[in-house]
Amino acid sequence: MGTRSFGIDPGAVAALCKEIAEIHAMGLELAVVVGGGNIFRGKDARATGMDRVTGDNMGMLATLINSLALQDALEQRNVITRVLSAVEIRQVAELFIRRRALRHLEKGRVIILAAGTGNPYFTTDSAAALRAMEIKAEVLLKATKVEGIYSADPAEEPDAKLLKKVRYLEVLERGLRVMDTTAISLCMDNRLPIVVFNIRESGNIRRLILGEDVGSTVSE
User: Fold this and answer.
1) What is the CATH number of domain 140-220?
2) Fewer Cβ close by (within 10 Å): the C or N end of the chain?
3) Does the reported pTM lie above 0.90?
4) Residue range(s) in the chain whose domain bears CATH number 3.40.1160.10
5) Could you give the strand order of the β-sheet that contains 110-114, starting from the edge strand earlier in sequence?
6) Model pLDDT for residues 196-214, shown as the tens digit of each residue
7) Which long-range contacts (CB under 8 A, 24 or more apart) does 115-119 make?
8) CATH number given to 1-137
9) How far apart are CA 111 and CA 81, in angstroms?
């Protein structure tokens, strides 16, 4: 969305793809899970009386739109990609099949995972955690608008403190707004570390990959 209030900002997409292309060139295997809140938010629709399942299905389709935009921008940078969707829509994306996803990664392609888990009642965060387990990811990177995990919402409480290292149980017990509880629990059960960082600061993904102290880490 970038600086816009709705839709896709080409500048924001280009900046993100530049960083993805740079770390892909380092030889990393990358899987990207895309949300759809810039186009449609299920929880906002529910506030108007829309059925939860209908709203969630619309949200999943919104992630597919964003995935195609990301794919186009990456391929303009000569990065070979594949969009894998949890909802079957053969004309524009492949159906997510775990072994196929792993094969694409082995061949050096960036995979973009669309449509969440394919089920209502599950967030994009839960989808990211699930897919990370399925492809045996080493780390889950949670891109946000802030520097990391805070003791409270920094937009509401100026004195909120940045927490550099947090345990899974602490996130759940304190109700820290990192990812939803399903995603956190899944990562905790499988000991997958989560790094929460500011995607708007240029170069953060590369610095993080190179081991610099970027964002906040959730682990045991």
Assistant:
1) 3.40.1160.10
2) C
3) yes
4) 1-137, 140-220
5) 31-33, 110-114, 81-85, 94-95
6) 999 999 999 999 999 999 9
7) 115/60, 115/61, 115/63, 115/64, 115/85, 115/86, 115/87, 116/59, 116/60, 116/63, 116/86, 117/86, 118/60, 118/85, 118/86, 118/87, 119/86
8) 3.40.1160.10
9) 6
